[in-house]
Amino acid sequence: MTLSPTVRHAVVASGVALCLLTGTAAALPAGAAPSPAAPAARTAAVGPLGAELLSAADKVGLTWTGDQSGSKDQNWGNGGTYHYVLKPVSGQATPDVDWKVRFTLPEGQAFDSEYQQDQVTVAGSTLTVAPSQDWRRKVPQNGLEIIIAWKEDPSPIAAVPGKPDAPATWAPYVDTSLYPEPDLPAMAQASGARQFTTAFVVSDAQDRKTPVWGGQHAHPVSGNYGVPRINALRRAGGDVVVSFGGANNNELAQDITDVGALTEAYGSVVERLKAYKLDFDVEGTAVVDKAANTRRAKALAALQQRYAAKGTPLHISYTLPVLASGLTPDGLEVVRDALRNGLAVETWNVMAMDYGPPVQDMGQAAIDAGTNLHEQLAALYPGTPDAAVWKMVGVTPMIGVNDSPGETFRLEDARRLAAWASRNHIGRLSMWSATRDHPCDKPTASPVCSGIPGQQEYEYSKALGTFTG
């Protein structure tokens, strides 16, 4: 970060927020005298901190610049940056400006320090910053900077309750293990998705029993990680499906061998996140771990009964590997195991990706996988109306370049799959992943882009998001 010569430089581990004040004004007609100064009105809230200029609005104006090159906002999890710019309204250097700016820190963040030795008043999450030295009252033509450091707030953050009655028909996966932490509200606004499948909750490798995000010991589900983003998404009308398992790390049922303890571990996640839609991504060696699969089914069936007694439904989906011909024999056994143990699975979602041998038409392969899954479920749930069987079908492609060589799920494939899903009114459409829904310079299977150089931002989300349920 490069700051102007008028600003003292400081390096902090927790983060920095940079502010400048800007504005323009029309010149007075020749010979006209200025009107007597009126009390300055507060400015409208600006940028992600809802910053407000509380005084001197007749002399300076406030703008957020954290989305601009050279001074981008940062978020390191335990700290970060916010950037605002303030310049004189006159366009000329202006002395004796008694400015005052109020900021409201987001949930989960706390004030750390301020590096220009300005006066800072802290009241909860609200900061009021004003100059305490004469040189800070001189606003140069190129702007005055305010640098604020913030840190992670360790105080427990209550989760905004999820929406158990809102079906997750279109819920793309988000890789929560990525750095920086994915911004769910911003992704929703940019992509049009209202719900996301947050992946993955797994067993802590250090104690083999604690639910953590992405295998990170520092991110237990009992803590605050992810909660502010989930809360903001829910306040905006969205929700999350919390996904357990995945290709890496151990799903809780693989490490917790007591069904009662496993029930409580799953229940702790439900209670901490107020999440009533759970997904279980069972792949790799987990598919053939029959003991773990049985423990999982029994624990979840018990948890469903517990919440049913409270009048709150607990919606369960399973996500399994698939071929174009449908579930493998091991995958079918996972379904049978759930049925034997009384678990009500609403959606059997298949990973239409990474088939192994190169597949030229990935769109048709995904459609075939979903169609054949429907036939398999019809046989496993005899007597169930056909429309209800279709509602149990979920399909999740890996957008763009897949991990398996020779497999690319293209934008046209996404459009065809969404149209097929809408015609058949399947239960869920998803994708791996919303955090990959960006263009790449090279055709590669990256965790942060699709490998499709020509795609637009969130173009896969918008194509698959035409699914009407």
UniProtKB/TrEMBL annotation:
SUPFAM superfamilies: (Trans)glycosidases
Top-rank lineage group of the source organism: Bacteria
InterPro entries listed in its UniProt record: GH, GH18_Chitinase
Name listed for the protein in its UniProt record: Lysozyme
Annotated organism of origin: Streptomyces mobaraensis (strain ATCC 29032 / DSM 40847 / JCM 4168 / NBRC 13819 / NCIMB 11159 / IPCR 16-22)
